[in-house]
Amino acid sequence: MNHSLCNQLVTIMAAQQPKRNIVIVGGGIIGCTTAYFLTRHPKFDPAQHTITLLEASFIAAGASGKAGGLLALWAYPECLVPLSYRLHRELADEHNGAERWGYRQVGCGTISAVVKNADLRARGQGTTTTTSASRTSDLKKPDDTTAAAPNANLPIQAKDEKASKDWEKLPKQDVAATSLLSKSVLPPDLDWIDASLVRSWDVMGRRGETETAQAHPFHFTNAMADLAAAKGVDIRLGAKVTNITSSTPNDRVDTVEYQDRNNNDKKITITEVTDVILTAGPWTGKILPRSKIEGLRAHSVVYEADVSPYAVFTDIELPSDWTPEHRRVMGQKRKHRGHVDPEIYARPFGEVYACGEPDKSIPLPETADQVQCDEDQCNDLISYIATISPILASAPIRAKQACYLPQHVRFGEERGPLIGQTSTPGLWIAAGHTCWGIQNGPATGLLMSELIFDGQAKSAVIDKLDPKKFRV
Fold first, then answer.
1. Which of the listed residues 57, 249, 436, 454 has the most CB atoms within 10 Å of its CB?
2. CA-CA distance, 158 to 272, in Å (whole number)?
3. pLDDT digits (tens, 9 = 90+) for 175-217
4. Phi-psi region of 205 (alpha: psi -120 to 50; beta: other; left: phi over 0)
5. What span, in angstroms and rounded, lies between the C-alpha atoms of 287 and 428?
6. From the centroid of its chain, how far is CA 74?
7. What is the DSSP pairing of strand 107-114 with strand 310-317?
8. What sign does the CA torsion over 256, 257, 261, 262 have?
9. Residue 239 to residue 52: CA distance in whole angstroms
10. Bond from prior residue into 77 cis (ω within 30 degrees of 0)
């Protein structure tokens, strides 16, 4: 079949498509990749199809802007991962992702380290730890929008030693991922970790294959939004959705209402809607409670440091009597007993990202720009990492931050994301990706475009993620 005939067939197919007025709710990675792939679908016709993306604050304001950006073939769920990993590479090749959002391959592994009092004293980190955790206030700029707000109103840890707790790991690895670990010597270019403290280094991945890559999440999400907008997507920021209604006999959604936060909360109504796609991360559960999507808060810090490209999962054993300086001066004990497990990712653009344990102490706020950051939790993270990395111990802190990971929880158990049409005609959902939203964003966006324009997912089998299976 010649090229001219193919173009004619595509034109005919597009002309046969019914008019669609699609509204995407949420400007994180899932919403932006969905917008991107809708505009790249062969059946998309800007003369017939209108796409509007509503974001309550700004693009990548939540977890999509504060994630680590790790991409891995050992992520989950398996039905999304291989497709999405491949799409990341293809997107980077097509749109110069290496420069635009820092796409690159990285080494990835887990270290086990034992830190003793003598190690801390040798660095002046005995009972008085002076790390960048206690210097950040001098480094913050007044216009730094990623810096943490003061935490004066947050609960303070009890002075009683009983307040200490075991470290809680983020839901990053499953059993299959852990089984891929293979012992190796600490790579010589992983020189920002003190090798003398490391007892083991386990490589993540399969021999002879590159299994792990990386994208800067904030830049990647914004690039997807820009590329979608260039194809005609109407992106409205400060647009907080307040109501999705139906006035048709078959209860198909046809109206979306939102507050324009940039215009005195003026009420705006979008009518004649044919499809609404909920991609609001943890806020999806506020819009559609039966989705059971909720938020899990996680803290992170960003260092200003240019180091070799590795993602490092840690297991750090600390002296039982050691307390970080910021807690010692408040008369507190260390928050965590025994071992701690921060994750550390060298990132492009002269950054190192580190994340700590999750918590549910503060409820999900109304919008992403209202998320509270507990600075003490960030300082814990900084202090723990300082014990194994002299380079990061002396590095300036660019940001202390928190976000909410979107979880699909049923009967107290975490399930996979929901992707597909709900029981309400015209209402779609793509949410609940936990900490793998950046990794699985491209596959989710592509599959949503297929569901909308083809009526079925063609690129992967995602039956187990069907919202209707969960009565959503």
1. 436
2. 55
3. 454 455 445 578 999 999 999 999 999 988 655 455 799 999 9
4. left
5. 12
6. 16
7. parallel
8. positive
9. 11
10. yes
